[in-house]
Write a structure and sequence with these properties.
With 138 residues, this protein is of the alpha+beta class. It has one helix at 14-66; strands at residues 88-89, 98-105, 108-115, 127-134.
Length: 138
């Protein structure tokens, strides 16, 4: 005859195992939320930089539009040769920011803003925002 023990000794350790699994699942969820928050902060910063760059470009176009007689003299730098012809430093507005203004053709201007968001210095990423505007009377 077999002697079956039914009671608490057959269940010993099950509650502890269930508790450890619950803590593991909860910890994974918390880590996922922390990771999501870090990505959201990065995306918010990137959106702020892009918005600021767009505003800088639009202000520069407005300056040229307000003074079309002197528009040709408003060129700044050359992004293809930044060492010999650097652009206008706007690092006080954007991290590592430089603004270039070039006359593409008579009455047509290109405004380019570049910036380098803070991050890994070994792997720098340069972002840019560009607009081309036609200014009549220039």
């Amino acid at each position: 005859m077999k002697n079956h023990h039914h009671g608490r000794f057959n269940q010993s350790g099950v509650i502890l195992l269930e508790s450890l699994i619950a803590i593991l699942i909860f910890s994974i969820g918390i880590l996922a939320l922390v990771g999501l928050q870090a990505v959201m902060i990065g995306n918010t910063s990137e959106a702020r930089y892009r918005s600021e760059a767009s505003l800088i470009v639009q202000k520069r176009i407005a300056e040229i539009w307000a003074n079309p007689a002197n528009a040709g003299a408003m060129t700044e730098g050359d992004p293809t040769d930044p060492l010999n012809n650097p652009g206008f430093d706007i690092s006080n507005l954007l991290p590592g920011g430089i603004r270039y203004t070039m006359q593409v053709s008579p009455g047509e201007f290109l405004v380019l803003v570049t910036w380098q968001p803070p991050g890994d210095p070994a792997n720098p990423v340069v972002h840019q925002h560009m607009a081309i505007a036609r200014i009549s009377g220039a």
